[in-house]
Specification:
Helix content is 0%, strand content 50%. It is mostly beta strands and 125 residues long. Strand 7 and strand 8 form a beta hairpin. The N and C termini lie far apart (38 Å). The mean pLDDT is 95.
Length: 125
């Protein structure tokens, strides 16, 4: 798996929508589960959403269920996170990450072995 690169972060108001993307360079992108994590200043990095390597399964943190949607386009080597109804508490650096499909889709950070550099999402009150 090659580098992961996030894009699409920005500054929005509460209630707005935003989508972020993660582009992968590796030829084996379509063999990895993909996840989105976020980290706010002074806090631990936390799981947000994940999608299985074929795209047939997804999982979400309780805090974003019903608001965020993860998807992937393996032909484009890209994973997306559509964020609706954004809240100030969603403010964080958002990271995409890849996990081996040796395991089932997981929210456990230690299984994700490849990481992007992050993109800032800021939601004003």
């Amino acid at each position: 798996q090659g580098p992961l690169e996030e894009s699409g972060g920005g500054l929005v108001q509460a209630g707005d929508s935003l989508s972020v993307s993660c582009a992968a360079s590796g030829r084996t992108f379509n063999t990895y589960h993909m996840g989105w994590f976020r980290q706010a200043p002074g806090k631990e990095r936390e799981f947000v959403a994940g999608i299985s390597w074929r795209g047939g399964g997804t999982t979400y943190a309780d805090s974003v269920k019903g608001r965020f949607t993860i998807s992937r386009d393996n032909a484009k080597n890209t994973v997306y996170l559509q964020m609706n109804g954004l809240k100030p508490e969603d403010t964080a650096v958002y990271y995409c990450a890849a996990a081996s499909n040796v395991y089932g889709l997981t929210s456990t950070i230690h299984y994700y072995t490849y990481w992007g550099q992050g993109t800032q999402v800021t939601v004003s009150a």
